[in-house]
């Protein structure tokens, strides 16, 4: 269920700017795995993939990037698994 929360956060970030157009949107969803990539023309990119590890446990890897209000590129990579959400911010 963690991947649903992470996915919702990424989509909220991506669609925060209603003027942004989708440049690329790819997704593959299976019962035990998923993968998606999203790129908007306002420099927002997001990608995520996950797989069902056990009956009720997902392991999700992903990243998103954007340009801050100060004009700096920000990239966040993360893992979400039994240890929780583990982000790494790269500025």
TrEMBL record:
InterPro entries: CHIT_BIND_RR_consensus, Cuticle_Struct_Prot, Insect_cuticle. The keyword Phosphoprotein does not apply. Residues 1-16 form the signal peptide. Keywords: Cuticle, Signal. GO terms for cellular component: chitin-based extracellular matrix. One of its GO terms (molecular function) is structural constituent of chitin-based larval cuticle. This is Larval cuticle protein 9. The lineage of its organism: Eukaryota, Metazoa, Ecdysozoa, Arthropoda, Hexapoda.
């Amino acid at each position: 269920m963690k991947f649903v929360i992470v996915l919702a956060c990424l989509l909220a970030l991506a669609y925060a700017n209603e003027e942004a157009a989708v440049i690329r949107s790819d997704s593959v969803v299976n019962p035990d795995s998923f993968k998606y990539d999203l790129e908007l023309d306002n420099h927002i990119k997001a990608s995520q993939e996950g797989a069902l590890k056990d009956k009720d446990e997902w392991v999700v890897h992903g990243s998103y990037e954007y340009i801050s209000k100060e004009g700096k590129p920000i990239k966040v990579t993360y893992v979400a698994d039994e240890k929780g959400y583990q982000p790494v911010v790269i500025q």
